[in-house]
Structures are given as C-alpha cells and as structure tokens.
Please model this.
Amino acid sequence: MKTPVISIFARWPTPGEAKTRLIPGYGPKGAAAIYRKLLEHTVAQARASKLPFALRTTGGSAADFRAWLGDDVNVVDQGEGDLTAKLQRAPAPGFCIGSDCPGLTADLLREAAEALHTSPVTIGPASDGGYWLIGFREPSPWLFEGIVWSTDAVLPATLERCGERGVEPAVLPTLSDVDEPEDLADWPQFQP
Model:
C-alpha cells in the first residue's frame, strides 16, 4: 500500500464565514481568529506526522494559503458540489480530516495510517456523533453517499454503511471538535 495522504479540509478564515456557530460567543472576528489557530494546529500536526498531506481549500487562493501556512503546503481546491462530492474526491489511500479538532496529534495521524494496513476503513469518532477522521485504503465513495452531515447521525450511519459491506473499520480514540463556544472550555489556548 502507498503511504496514505492526509486531506485537510479547510476554508479561508473570513470573519462571518468561518466557524459561524462560534459567532454568538466570540463575534465574527473572534470566531475567525479561533479558526485560524485551529487550522494552524492541524497543519502543524500533519507536518509533524511526516505523512504527505494536502490542504483542500475553499474561500481563498492557493497563494494566500501558502503565504500563511508555508510554501511547502500542497493546496488543492475543494471543487464544486456538496460535502459528499468534495469528500469523494479525496485520494486513496488516505484520510480526510477537518480543521477544528484541538486534540489532534501527529501520533494519532500516524496511528490512522498504520490502521489502514489491517483495515480498509479507519474512523476517528467525534464526541458529537460525527467523526474527526475517516480513512480508506481504496476509493470508497459509498462511505459518503446519503449521509446527513453536521448531525449526530453521521457516525452511526457510517458504521451501518460499513456493516452492510462487511467492512470492519479500525476505530481510533474519540476526540472533540470545536463547533460551539462551550467546546473551547478545555482549550483556552485556541481562544482569540
């Protein structure tokens, strides 16, 4: 198996467009500042993992992302369509992660890559019922079809989908992502 590629899904931190559910607690600029710190953390962990990674972006130019996060960052436009279509375009073997998980570590990314040697699918559950990582050894568009995103049904639906195909996913530790102001209670270093 080739070395898996980390696909980090990211957006340009425009105030009023980034982490909008944080705006009631931090305002548009504060929410964008939190998102900047979270994305910087995500890229730092991906870089430290020594695994290849690409930033799959929306809302900013490749040059802007590289100027901010480093010339070594491979920037790929997410392309058109909904989240399902965007996730389906991620290369295999690889895994998709968001950019709002403060508990993400380089060790967890390496663990996810190792898990693909023994299982065709790797899942990092999120405490809100979704996942912070999903990995696949081969192209697996079926993982994303018909999923109702941003709900607590994402993980159960994904596990059910795996079961229907006889796939036993490797399961990583559960982490929390940052969606609401209270999600930052344990992570003061990410506050603006």
Notes: The beta strands are 5-11, 53-58, 74-77, 94-97, 121-125, 131-136, 170-171. The chain has a mean pLDDT of 96. The first helix runs from residue 23 to 49. Helices lie at 23-49, 62-69, 83-88, 106-115, 154-164.
